[in-house]
Design a protein that fits this description.
Layout lengths: L6 E6 L3 E7 L10 E4 L6 H8 L9 E6 L3 E2 L2 E3 L6 E3 H8 L3 E6 H8 L8 E4 L10 E6 L3 E9 L2 E6 L12 H6 L12 H5 L1 H14 L9 H10 L4 H24 L5 E3 L13 H9 L5 H5 L3 E4 L4 H11 L8 H4 E2 L1
Helix pairs in contact: 3-11, 6-8, 7-8, 8-9
């Protein structure tokens, strides 16, 4: 499999879509262009809108989207887009392309994320051989793994976000009856996605018998950063501990000895309120396999466009990635 250049890489989320151009296999990526997903009916129209901002018209596209991929088509989980790669290729006159689940693409980016785009959480533990895991709260929640065999990287996507989630501490037991449900359930995504931050804030106040004043994640974040002693800040700290617990659960589920990377749009905005010791305590509290959890390094990606670098690496060296190009590439 080869991709024609210039190649456009696209990261499509429920809220934002990001595009960057790789002119040749050796070229650096162009500066990303960001648009709002909801401003366009589909991927082809969004790409058309950014073409004037690119140095050349792309010949191929590698895109990832936040939703399950079925038979080469993808429905965004948190936006009304149905992406059909072949249809996009036809509308734009592309020679070919590839469609990936967003966290499948995030996993594929793990080997090439620049170290300066990351921040360790807790001790700088050595990275062992084994699966690597990436987890990221944004409009939704993505979780995927990456394994390596015979010099090729293989992504393992998941719908981990839809697993049921329950309380594990006295503080969590107190707020759980007050947590707003999504689709009638409390899931990992409903608690840990961006809106989950607001749910945790509201539930914590309701458990204290106080009527919440804020109902938007951005407002909770702003209030928390403005006053580290506020209820909003305490809710953000609790949210971080819940993220740590979930990340540890996912890490032992995948036996992710290669490390856990946190990404997404939410966590970098609230990193000022991260208590690394509390995060690692929640991450490692996994009896009887706490020794496994303690040996797994954790880090946070602080650069919003890191997944674009991963997709550009696929375009430049597709033979290094064990992707079903025959079944999934399109023209």
């Amino acid at each position: 499999m080869t991709f024609a250049f210039p190649a456009l890489v696209a990261d499509i989320g429920g809220t934002n879509a990001r595009f960057s151009l790789k002119a040749t296999p050796q070229a650096e990526l162009s500066a990303p262009v960001h648009v709002r997903t909801g401003d366009y009916p589909g991927l082809a129209e969004a790409i058309e809108s950014v073409l004037p901002k690119l140095s050349a018209r792309p010949c191929s596209v590698i895109a990832c989207g936040a939703g399950p991929l079925v038979a080469g088509k993808l429905k965004l989980s948190n936006a009304d887009w149905h992406i059909d790669g072949r249809e996009v290729a036809g509308k734009l006159g592309l020679s070919g392309g590839l469609l990936l689940n967003d966290f499948e693409a995030q996993a594929l980016s793990l080997p090439v994320i620049p170290e300066q785009w990351t921040r360790p959480i807790g001790p700088r533990l050595p990275q062992a051989e084994g699966p690597r895991l990436i987890l990221g709260p944004g409009t939704g929640l993505g979780v995927a793994a990456l394994i390596e065999a015979a010099g090729r990287h293989t992504p393992v996507s998941s719908e981990f976000c839809h697993m049921g989630f329950g309380p594990a501490s006295d503080e969590e037991w107190a707020i759980w009856p007050h947590l707003e449900r999504a689709h009638g359930r409390i899931t990992t995504e409903s608690v840990v996605c961006g809106q989950g931050l607001a749910r945790v804030y509201r539930a914590r106040l309701l458990a204290k018998g106080v009527e919440p004043e804020l109902d938007d994640p951005a407002a909770v974040t702003a209030a928390a950063l403005a006053d580290p002693a506020s209820d909003a800040a305490e809710a953000v700290r609790l949210y971080w501990r819940i993220v740590g617990r979930l990340a540890g659960d996912a890490a032992i589920a995948f036996v992710a000895r290669g490390g856990v990377t946190l990404a997404g749009g939410v966590l970098p905005r609230i990193v000022e309120l991260l208590d690394e010791a509390a995060f690692r305590s929640a991450f490692e509290d996994k009896a009887p396999v706490e020794a496994l959890a303690r040996a797994i390094p954790t880090r946070l990606v602080t650069h919003a466009d890191s997944v674009l670098v991963g997709m550009a690496a696929i375009a430049a060296a597709p033979e290094s990635y064990a992707v079903d190009y025959v079944g999934r590439a399109w023209a």
